[in-house]
Amino acid sequence: MKILSDSKVGFDPISLIVDGKRVFPMMGEMHFSRYPHQYWEEELCKMKAGGIDIVSLYVIWIHHEEIHGDFDFSGDRNLRLFLETVKKCGLYAILRIGPWAHGEARNGGFPDWLLKDSVDNGYEVRTDAPRYLEHVRKFYEKTFEQAKGLLIKDDGPVIGVQIENEYGHCGGKNGEEGEQHMRTLLAMAKEIGFEVPIYTATGWGGAVTGGMIPVMGGYCEAPWDQRTTEIEPSGNYIFTRERNDHNIGSDHGLGDGITFDMNKFPFLTAELGGGLQVTKHRRPIATGLDTAAMTMTKLGSGANLLGYYMYHGGTNPEGKLTTLQETKETGYPNDLPVLSYDFNAPLREYGQMEDTYRQVRLLANFIHDFGSDLCDMIYVEQPGNPLKPDNFEDIRSAVRCKDRILFDGETVKSGYLFVNNYQRRYKMAEHKNVELRAYDTDGKSILAEFEKIDVEDGDFFFYPFNMPVGKKAVITIDATPVCQVADFDGKGHVAYIFYKDSEKEPSLTVKGELDGHKVIVITRDEAVHGSKVVKNGKEHFIISNGDVVTKADGKPELYFEVSENETKHAVFKAFPELLDTPDGFEVLKKDDDSFTVYKSQNSHENRAEAFWSTDECSDKLNVSIKVSNMPSDRNEMFMSIDYEGDTAEMYFDGRMIADSFYTGQKWEVGLKRFCGNECEAFCCDINIQSLKENTKLYLQKWPEMTDGKACRVNDIHLIAQFKIEI
Fold first, then answer.
1. Regarding the domain delimited by 607-721, which CATH topology (the fold level of the hierarchy) does it fall under?
2. For residue 504, what are the CA distances in angstroms to 417, 448, 458, 478, 499?
């Protein structure tokens, strides 16, 4: 996706349009004020390598004006520097300027002084009350000072602005009064100078939008739910025309609770849960497969923008007057960690690239090469597709397709059959030896049929039919498309890469001539660990247990991890073969007729050690940790703490620097921000609060109790992250 200062950007009921062409962007949320500014560039490059085109970001009011009139846009709060870095990394931005944000921030992002002022002067926030609007105007003006000159019209990265958040769904006014307030805020933003081609508003759950483009959401679970039991299955794994996830699986009519006309706006998402932020009372774990299956379901249901909240986790900044997290004490429904906003996101609190990152990247690879063509493929409901998420017996399926005129003048239906047999936390029926068919809108005409397969519990995939390969052929194949590699042979031909779960050879039907173009089928595991990289102006598909990130200067680097007491060489395989073997690497072997394997000549070693002692005091365990022998050539050192308890806090020089709500996962803390990469030693203290067996709390798996409680450290591991240019 390329947007220039003079580009014509708009939309129709189908998709966003740039310079007359349909575009399908990938968007991810990162909060600059929740991450150390010295690492912004590295993290934004990771986001781009993960497939993100647009960075969405809250400007959280309380982070910038905690004290009335004392605005702070310095250090980690430096919005201008962040936007400049977004541009440097080749990304775009959508500013979510509130004034109310939520974002699990204190008061939803409102400063305490604003709420006190509203009480003292008898007005209601989030309305057209003149005194409230005066305060909002000042905040908007100060925010615009940071963004001035960085809008897309000025050749900057900012292409859009979101006004308010969940207005009319979480607070605010409904009906015409709510619509008018949204129009008031939009007019104010424009008057101040926020002139951008895209204005959005969240549209789910009855939120009002003021005529702006509605963006939708969907999460795989609900940590804000006040229950502490297993909850009903999420409707976000159901194929449906319904955009309002609050309405999926209900007996209400299509679009019930939505305040806008779905026929006038494209289906765009801004808050697909990239993970879940745990709360004190409810701590579900979102896995990479949870997110991937949900995303594919939205894709099959007609979404034409995939936006993730959060895409990058973070850490709440230190407040001047109070802590800055959401709490029940301030009238909000949940207690959150003081510091951690990890979210189990694709990129986690300390920039960890884990399975969710790779699962989302896999879909992004597809979107970047096939998304524009997908945009005007309509959603076609399939016969037998269940509409309620508690149906675990029937295969869930959808089709997106359109008419395509072939090279010989024939018109055919071209598109994709989507199949989902995944429901988070529930077992789906297995379907043996089934023949999958794609049906047209009449529910009877068969558009494509595929060889019989077994659809297992947890499977989700999509198959193309009549997909163009070059200009002289279309193919139908029972494998999922990954990406294209242009000019793989230096003769202008394109390689089309697919993956297949089973060991069974894919069934490929070709109509026409491939004419030198190539079809490559890899495993799903290889696809998940693969990324498309441009090196020396040429496209390559690289597979590695590490992750390739291209720096802002265009040079790709391979990130990889080495466990303690381990020595490892960096290894990757590439298609096509690299023009030049990277410095410090050797060609290990030609894996087959497609991929070439490379191995670093030098190994990387991790001899770091962690020593700890414990002191139990009543319902708390105090742990003193000393880390030594950290390798000096590392990029990061992750301390992985296997503890059991209710909560944990980490202290350095007497100041709390990290915290955790226990979920059953290992608590991973990146040490780079605390001691740099030159230091070989690090010391800290941890306080663990015991978890009692009668605590009202939802955990997916409880720890073993001793004398009615759990409060222990099982182990501490040190994982060194290295990076090497390839």
1. Jelly Rolls (2.60.120)
2. 19, 20, 18, 10, 12
